[in-house]
Amino acid sequence: MALLGLLLVGFSLVAGLGRAVAAEPLPQIWMAATEPFRRAALGWGRNDYMELFPPGAPWRTAARHVQVFQIAKQFVERASAQQLSLVIAGLRRRGIALAMQGVPNIAPRGCGRGIESYGPPRDMANDAARIKRLGGQLAYISMDEPLFYGHLFTPHDQRVACHAPIATIAADAARKIAAARRIFPSVQVGDTEPFGIPFISAGAWASLLQHWFSAFQAATGQPLAFVHADIVWLRPNAISQFEAAVPVIRRNGIPLGIIYNGTPADPTSAAWVADAKNHIRLIERRLGIVPAMAVFQTWTKRPRQMLPDTAANTLTGLIAAYVAGH
User: Fold this and answer.
1) What are phi and psi of 304, to 5 degrees?
2) Quick one: pLDDT at residue 10?
3) Within 13 Å and on the Cβ side, how many CA atoms surround 103?
4) What is the residue-averaged pLDDT of the chain?
5) C-alpha to C-alpha distance for 33 and 52, rounded to whole angstroms
6) Looking at residues 259-275, what average pLDDT do you find?
7) Topology of domain 25-324, per CATH?
8) In terms of pTM, does the model score above 0.85?
C-alpha cells in the first residue's frame, strides 16, 4: 500500500480529472454496476440501477459515450423477463452494445464449487439463449478471472480449489464459448484478470498470462478480444504487476482495458468517485497508459447511485467527468 500511496501523492487534492494524454482518442467506454440482486443479498439497500434504462433517464451525456454495458451473470439468470427486456430495450434505444459476464471454468467433482469463475457446463449458453429469447443481441462476453481462480486461487474456508492446468482452463473456456457462439456466432470473448495478487511476483504473473493467452488461442482458434485489468488498488504490488503485464498484453496484440473504480474501503459514494479519479490520473497521466477500453465498473457498495450524470458522486457522473477531461 505504501508504493501506491507514493504514486498517488499530489493527485488527491486535484478536484477535476484534468486532461489525460491530449493526443490520444477517447477509449471505448464500458459501464457495469452492482445489480439489484447482489445489493439485496448483501444488505446494501436498493440503488437506481433499473432507472438507467427507461426513456429519458438522466444520463444523456454519459449515455452518448458509453459504448458497451455489461450485465452480471446473476442478473441474466435471476431478473424477471420484464426486467431483462427493459435493459435490452433501453440499451438498444441508446445504441449501446450488450456485454455479459461469463464464467468459463467447469467444476469437476471434488473442487471448484462456490468459487468465482466456475459454473455448470451449459451456463454460458443458457444465459446467451435467454438474452436472445428476449430480443437481445449479445456483442461481448467478459470472462470472470478464469486464470486466477482456476489456477492460483486458494480459499481460506471449506471450498476446495482446483488449481487446474492452464490447458484445462482453456479447454473448458473453448467448450463454453463454442456453445454460446452457436447462439451468437459473432460474439467477442475477452478476459478480466486481477493485478495485486499477494503471493506471486510481477514477472511470474506476467509469464502465466502469456501461457494463458497462448493456451486460449490454441483451444479456441482465436485470440482474446480484450483483457480488462482489475487492479486491486489497495495492494502494494498492484501497479508493479500491472506494469509487468502490459508489454505481454500488447505483444499478443490484445486490446487492453482498465477497470476504473474506487475501493471497498471508501466510506461514501463521493469518496469512491474521488478514488476512481485518482486511479485514472495515476494510470493515464503518471504512467502514461491510455487504454483501448475504459471500464467504469463497481461490484461494491459504492457508489450507491448511478444517476444523474450531472452529479459528482454517481457512476454516470464519473463517466461524464472522464469524457470532459479528454
Assistant:
1) -70, -35
2) 39
3) 24
4) 93
5) 11
6) 98
7) TIM Barrel (3.20.20)
8) yes
Which three cell numbers, joined as nine digits, stand for 240?
Answer: 508493479
The SS3 of residue 323 is: helix
Grid cell, residue 291, equals 487504454
What is the rounded CA–CA span in Å between residue 47 and residue 73? 18
Q: Of the candidates 7, 59, 22, 55, which has an alpha carbon nearest to the alpha carbon of residue 306?
A: 59
Strand partners, 102: 143
Q: Are 180 and 102 in contact (CB under 8 A)?
A: yes
User: Could you tell me the residue ranges of all domains in the chain?
Assistant: 25-324
**Cβ-contact 90, 139 below 8 angstroms:** no
What is the chain's length? Answer: 326
Cβ contacts of 165-169, under 8 Å, gap ≥ 24: 166/208, 166/211, 166/212, 166/215, 167/215, 167/219, 169/104, 169/105, 169/212, 169/215
As beta bridge partners, residue 227 has 191, 256
C-beta of residue 140 within 8 angstroms of C-beta of residue 97: yes
Query: DSSP 3-state assignment of 208?
Result: helix
Q: What is the pLDDT of residues 92-143, one digit of tens each?
A: 999 999 999 999 999 888 999 999 999 999 999 999 999 999 999 999 999 9
Q: Please report, to the nearest 10 degrees, the dihedral formed by the alpha carbons of residues 193, 195, 198, 204 taken in order.
A: 80
User: Phi-psi region for residue 261, left (φ > 0), alpha (ψ -120 to 50) or beta?
Assistant: beta
Q: What is the pLDDT of residues 3-34, one digit of tens each?
A: 444 344 333 333 445 444 444 689 999 999 99
Q: Tell me the Ramachandran region of residue 157: left when phi exceeds 0, alpha when psi lies from -120 to 50, beta otherwise.
A: beta
Maximum pairwise Cα distance, the chain: 53
